[in-house]
Amino acid sequence: MDLFRLTAHELQDKIKAKEISYTELTQNVIDRMDTVEDQVHAYVNTVKEQALAEAAKADKALAAGETVGPLFGIPISLKDNMSSTDMPTTSCSRILSNFTAPYTATVVEKIRNAGTIVLGKTNMDEFAMGSSTITSYYGPTQNPWGKDLVPGGSSGGAAAAVSAGEAILSLGSDTGGSIRQPAAFCGVVGFKPTYGMVSRYGVHAMTCSLDQVGPIAKDVMDCALAMNAIAGYDKKDSTSANVPVPDYTANLNGDIKGMRIGVPSEYFPSKLHPGIKEKVEAALKLLEDQGAIIEEVSLPASKYALSAYYIISPAEISLNISRLDGVSYGVREDVIDGDVYDMMVATRAKGLGKEVKSRVILGTHFLCIEQLKPYYHKALKVRTLVKQDFEEVFKKVDCIIGPTTLTTSFNFNNFPDPLTLRQNDLLLAGSNLAGNCAISLPCGIVDGLPVGMQIMGNAFDDEKVLRMAYCFEQASGIKNLQPSFIEGGE
Ligand code: GLN
Questions:
Q1: How far is ligand 1, taken at its centre, from the CA of residue 202, in Å?
Q2: 294: which strand partners?
Q3: Percentage, residues of the chain above pLDDT 90
Q4: Is the pTM of the predicted complex or chain greater than 0.85?
Q5: CA 270, 273, 276 angle in degrees (round to 5)?
């Protein structure tokens, strides 16, 4: 049986019915990895033996009558920026290619405490900078939906792993769309929780004020189950929100009667692929049929959001990457005739990729005294406006809905220029700037490729967003899509 195709909750039902064991499940996913990983390249490190040993333990625990939670014994993957002591955490950068963390990230501890079995770390754009995984030091990941198609990024490996059946669930991170965009491109569900809901302690920082860890899964229920495991206050993370954690699955019942959905015209620009527009409009109609009230809203500052994002994020990147200097950890370039500064220059010159370097240079420029006011301070003001826009709209509506991306996945051989690539983040960065929550879930297929719909919610309305997404998934029947390229093979 192709167990790798099932969701965590479906698998748990099979376990409970004694149809399968945790060992069979883990072995099934590992077999799938062995069959398709050469084509997909979702992983940069795997711990298959460790996973099988843990699965055997899980079987014993179950046999001994231990209570098992909904994610117990479920094989998962972690993005390569989440620290753990059992394998390297490199952020897919040459400079950290020899680095194994001396401690474990809180989010990793939490997902492991739920009983999940980690299979390995997934590929990503270097330090999470990018939208395609092409900036990874280890080479790109392939989208399971089409030969030479990008899986999106930066959590491209995480989304491709779930789509291809190489993990039942993945954890990714999202600074400006890096969970939602790859989820959309690979036809899976990706959830960026409210800023501060999931601890960032032990997760390599790209942009501290925007980064957020979240799940990538085959359906909304699995996302909610993962949120139950990973959300919550962490005193080790100074930006962690000390708020109660709801049961994210409690209201997944399909009832959205009377809920109000705002549709912003700014999220349907002329550059939007007409096929995507059509699918999202059909989805809105379906939600209306389920009892939601649809109204037009406006987020006027959102047209400046991307510019603000591409000033604030490199500024913070330049600070975060400054700690990688070859002194405390990472790959050091020794120089024969030179001092410590020459060593640092050589280490960074060789250890960091082009994309990272260009963002560090740009960010340093924005933070220098002459540019601080015209760029960085102005961007912070725009950020406030973006946040205020959302706050105003969320006084009237429960959720905002639009497309996740302007296009479907693009081809490695027809790669957009850097400006177009950044413009593609248009519909994504706003939620990060505002610190809100947002999910991307499949809402149809266009030209043989999956299309993502984005449901955005106010800060700490994560549960509402999941409820809306679940209703759409149930009503449309669009869930757990199987990718065409990997299935068709070649
Ligand atoms: N594409 C965005 C960027 O390159 C998103 C990055 C992210 O969310 N980590 O900045």
A1: 19
A2: 261
A3: 96
A4: yes
A5: 120
